[in-house]
From TrEMBL, chain A:
SUPFAM superfamilies for this protein: MetI-like
Taxonomic path: Bacteria, Bacillati, Actinomycetota, Actinomycetes, Micromonosporales
Membrane topology note: Multi-pass membrane protein
Superkingdom, taxonomy of origin: Bacteria
CDD domains noted in UniProt: TM_PBP2
Biological function: Part of the ABC transporter complex CysAWTP (TC 3.A.1.6.1) involved in sulfate/thiosulfate import. Probably responsible for the translocation of the substrate across the membrane.
Protein name, per record: Sulfate ABC transporter permease
Length: 277, 248
């Protein structure tokens, strides 16, 4: 890299260096660090009673379990399809590839409420396009767990793909071709050559999807129906508790969610440098 | 591919079809409804302002993270940047409420005002410009800067003439993403902004209340507007990135 021999242009510690550092740190502390810290403190304002109360409430425990279950299903689905679509995008050319590539970003930039609405319009029990048919077959999607899973998969869809695609592009396909010319079939090539190469990208994407899936709120709110003890997820509990003036409960649940989110980021930031080296 | 269609394409098509189902006139009436128009205006306006702030602050943050030497807490700053991305949005709202809400230790209470909307957008869009500018800044060749400095250019001139032009595409892409994210924000506002019609109600909330009133057509109409905005942004980012790649 450039920092080897030549003397740096701006190694000197000028006042402006400190000023910039101060502004940036101050901004981040006021916007992120301090508020997040306060949630932790509020959650433990009465010692561990609030956390305890939450873990004793069967409805909330159910909500937490549901959230974890949905997140795991969503992550598995997104990983399988994410890797598949990534390989499709990088290794094959087909008409509409660029369009597909652009469409894959839609879930990241579209409002979760719109996502929920879109799913209701198609899979809604009474008026949706496929809803009545599915309902007659005994499958309910909206206002039930499958709907929550669909919504979660939707919002977290691009994360694995966006991590895997650049890695795949960088690795190139020479080794894959070599393996194939030596007689390996598609599955062997994928398992022995491709998968080890993209391993870190996949893991990174999985962690990000997990964080996103656990925390999805808007889309889930629209499709879940928010039935206590059945389709209420952890993020919906936070809203409900807060609006019912149970601040302690809201902060405690929020703290649990925030804890997982921060843990995910730290895992990622530990993985990432290793990946780059 | 079939999976992708079932999950993404067909539902999004359904939004468009439902939005246009009652004809152009109905669509236009739903979108220009006084309350809806106010919500769209607030959302887009605030997202725009927030994007401007992000362009300045995001570039500064990326600069400190890449160019400044190691100092105490720098790694912590790295982690802080990603928190808004990973934190559930509803928790993000609660988080901001704890510092800037009714029980604020700072004594500022912005809950239920438009400032709250601004702040929430600022929080959730924080990572975008930083994370798009950072890699470009890391890769940037220092030689041109050194040459400029040896020719007597001031630090400001170097930044404006040498560094900024190389960063512009990254900044633009980050800005577009942060604008799209701002426009579509919902979760963090539920607790923070109070969702007062005509004052702090954003577009997503407006759509949700239409859904809850079982008025799916007008919900779809407003949703189509949001979809259009996000699609324009995606295309813009795509074009910007292609141009960068071509320039090599």
């Amino acid at each position: 890299m450039a920092e080897s021999t030549a003397p740096r242009v701006r190694t000197g510690r000028r006042p402006s260096t400190y000023l910039l550092r101060l502004i940036v740190t101050g901004y981040l502390v006021l916007l992120v660090a301090w508020p997040v810290f306060l949630v932790g403190r509020n959650a433990f304002a009465d010692g561990t009673t609030d956390i305890q109360a939450i873990l004793d409430d069967p409805d909330i425990v159910h909500a937490l379990q549901l959230t974890v279950l949905v997140a795991i299903i969503a992550v598995v689905i997104n990983t399988v399809f994410g890797v598949g679509i990534s390989i499709l995008l990088v290794r094959y050319t087909f008409p509409g590839r660029r369009l597909l590539n652009a469409l894959l970003d839609v879930p990241l930039s579209v409002s979760p409420i719109v996502v929920g609405l879109a799913l209701v319009l198609v899979y809604g029990g009474r008026t949706g396009w496929f809803g009545p048919t599915l309902q007659n077959a005994g499958i309910q999607i909206i206002f039930a767990t499958p709907g929550i899973v669909l919504a979660t998969v939707f919002v977290a869809l691009p994360l694995v793909i966006r991590e895997v695609v650049p890695v795949l592009e960088e690795v190139g396909d020479e080794q894959e071709q070599a393996a194939r010319s030596l007689g390996a079939n598609a599955i062997q090539t994928f398992r022995r050559i491709t998968l080890p190469a993209i391993k870190w990208g996949v893991i990174y994407g999985v962690v990000l999807s997990l964080a996103r899936s656990l925390g999805e709120f808007g889309a889930v709110k629209v499709v879940s129906g928010n039935v206590l003890g059945q389709t209420r997820t952890a993020t919906l509990v936070v809203e409900e508790k807060y609006l019912n003036f149970d601040r302690g409960g809201a902060y405690a649940t929020a703290f649990l969610l925030a804890l997982v989110a921060v843990a995910c980021i730290i895992v990622v930031s530990v993985i990432r440098p290793k990946d780059q080296r | 591919m079939l999976w992708f269609s079932l999950l993404v394409l067909i539902p999004l098509t359904a939004v468009i079809v439902t939005a246009s189902g009652n004809g152009w006139v109905e669509f236009w009436r739903a979108v220009t409804n006084e309350q809806t128009a106010a919500a769209i205006q607030l959302t887009v306006g605030t997202a725009f302002l927030v994007t401007l702030v992000n362009i300045v602050m995001g570039t500064m943050i990326a600069w400190v993270l890449v160019r400044d030497e190691r100092f105490f807490g720098k790694r912590a700053l790295e982690v802080l940047i990603d928190i808004p991305f990973a934190l559930p949005t509803i928790v993000a709202g609660l988080v901001l409420l704890s510092l800037y809400g009714p029980d604020s230790p700072l004594g500022v209470n912005i809950a239920n005002t438009r400032v709250a909307v601004f702040l929430a957008f600022l929080f959730v869009t924080l990572p975008f410009v930083v994370r798009t500018v950072q890699p470009v800044l890391t890769e940037l060749d220092r030689e041109a800067e050194e040459a400029a400095a040896s020719l007597g250019a001031s630090r400001f001139t170097i930044f404006r003439r040498i560094i900024l032009p190389s960063l512009t595409p990254a900044i633009a892409a980050g800005a577009a993403l942060s604008f799209a994210r701002g426009v579509s924000e919902y979760g963090s506002l539920v607790l923070l902004s109070g969702n007062l019609p005509m004052r702090t109600e954003v577009t997503s909330v407006r759509i949700l209340s239409s859904i809850e009133n079982d008025n799916l057509e007008s919900a779809a109409a407003v949703a189509a507007v949001l979809l259009a905005i996000s699609f324009v942004v995606i295309v813009a980012v795509d074009v910007i990135q292609r141009r960068v790649v071509r320039r090599g």
